[in-house]
Amino acid sequence: MNVFVAILGLAFLILIHEAGHFFAAIAVGMRPRRFYIGFPPAVVKTVRNGIEYGIGAVPLGGYVKIPGMHRPAPADADVQFGRALHERPELAGPLQRLKRALAAGDDPAADAALEELMRLGGDPPPAGLSHGIQEILDGISPQAYWRQDTWRRVFVILAGPATNFVLAVALFTVLFLVGGGKATTTVGSVLAGKPAAAIGLHPGDQIVTINRQAVGPTDISAAISGSKGKSVTLTVVRGTRYLTLGPARPQVIDGAYRLGFVLRGQELGFGASAWQSLKLTGVVTREIGKSLGRLAHGEGRKDISSPVGITRTLDRSAGQGLQEYLWVLGLISLSLALMNMLPLLPLDGGHIAFSIVEGVRGRAVAREVYERVSVIGIALVLFLFVVGISNDVGRLGGG
Q: C-alpha distances in angstroms, 12 versus 26, 311, 330, 395?
């Protein structure tokens, strides 16, 4: 069940990322053609106001199709109409005229060639003809992405990572509001199956001594982790009674010796919670930047994780309670936002960088340049994915 909740959480983060692109595109008049929960092929779909909404057969994340990410090129016509031409050789003439029109940027001539292709296609048309015509029409339409002002393009692409960022800040704010800021000596929650639960520690217990030494909020974690796994005994106040619990041997949990409980925090107001949330996002952003910097120097490979490892982390946190799960979900959402802002195609940061370059130049970057840079970006993303998978397999095997 926890694995399902973990997968659902990751899928939700991807879905809201795509929803950010979708609603931003609508807001600036760049009407998307599709919005799916999950990935096609469609299980259920409907068309409203020219947008196809559907539920995909692959139940992960979401999918948004924005028309005309690039100006259609002659090679696109070959890809779209290859099968149709094989079935209907008579389409060769208008197809050549379409390719010449696309190469020259002559939209009226392209429209005429598409109309001729549609007419010669007959009823029923050959395989892929209708889809190809619609793809080219979308690519040269006034709503096409490549035709838009620079600010519109940047706004639509930035909306995806921004949505993940805002979600992370909102989750952190709520968690600080609910869980408080500075720790107290009062137990907030006890993890099932851990040493603290085994010795009878309860939420609401106030810890006063560890191994007969008085402790404050900042001393408790240090005293338990400093035991190096040796047995510890707690004295707690429960109601009006003093109780001695233990001894118990701390276990290694998340890289440190712990008994398996969480201290209650002091109550924070909304403003203080929001400020703590922003401070936390700043710290995490700085640490992710340091990790990427170490990776560039051949270090830090062990910091990388794949979707397998991310799901495993969410799975573990789901087993430790709702608040722990939401903390991890917020951190992953923030990480997705920051990683997507890397200036690499096909990541969002790469599209933003090219949009700005084209805005400064006053004309589009050649399609060949996009393709070459995309090859480099995809290779780097695949490299990170392989390294992440390798790390995750090693962790699963205890390595």
A: 21, 12, 12, 25
Q: How many domains does the chain have?
A: 3
What are the tens digits of pLDDT across the range 96-140?
A: 999 999 999 899 999 999 999 998 888 888 888 998 999 999 999
**Same domain, yes or no, for 368 and 308?**
yes
Distance (Å, whole) CA 397 – CA 391: 10
Quick one: 186 and 99 in the same domain?
Answer: no
Give bridge partners of residue 50 from the DSSP assignment. none
φ/ψ of 396, rounded to 5, equals -65, -35
Place of tokens 């950010």: 20
What is the mean pLDDT for each group of 10 consecutive residues in the chain (399 residues)? 72 88 92 85 87 82 85 89 89 93 92 91 86 91 90 95 95 82 82 91 93 88 89 92 92 84 81 87 81 62 54 59 80 87 88 91 82 83 61 43
Are residues 239 and 137 located together in one domain of the fold? Answer: no
- Amino acid at site 3: V
